[in-house]
Description:
The chain has one domain: HAD superfamily/HAD-like (Rossmann fold), CATH 3.40.50.
Amino acid sequence: xxxxxxxxxxxxxxxxxxxxxxxxxxxxxxxxxxxxxxxxxxxxxxxxxxxxxxxxxxxxxxxxxxxxxxxxxxxxxxxxxxxxxxxxxxxxxxxxxxxxxxxxxxxxxxxxxxxxxxxxxxxxxxxxxxxxxxxxxxxxxxxxxxxxxxxxxxxxxxxxxxxxxxxxxxxxxxxxxxxxxxxxxxxxxxxxxxxxxxxxxxxxxxxxxxxxxxxxxxxxxxxxx
Length: 225
């Protein structure tokens, strides 16, 4: 992963921040990067685009994409992790929430093996993503564990809110695709980040520039009202 920017010491009144990962917390779509190593990058990218637009069932599209990765060595995951770049302002947003005593969680249709080490660098330990099944050092083309689909994202958001005893009005959810609609609608402030039209229509606010510090400004503006 590329070196991250220094986070600021600013604070925002957020008790819970839940973010999607691919094309939100990071700039890339991880499964597309893995697919490039399998020589099926264009095919997988097309399925990803349609799934994020809400044109395909997410769980079915994930299974179809992961099946195309069968036979890849698990060492590819280390290579892909090095390709990951944090979205501009991600470190600043996370630091602002942590500085005010808030919790940050990542909820992703991507893969834990890629995401968790990246998140840990910013002190994020709550990561919910898909597992990749591996046998004898090779990807089997299957996931393991619960698939993090749209309903799972919304349920995880509600569970985090309840477990922390947080005020819904002090919660923020950020995503970019149709699979984020449930959690974005459930949050006190739901943000569509450089998002597909379906999510923009469901969100409270939309950010069109690829800089997550814009969310800090949104929260601050609401707090001043």
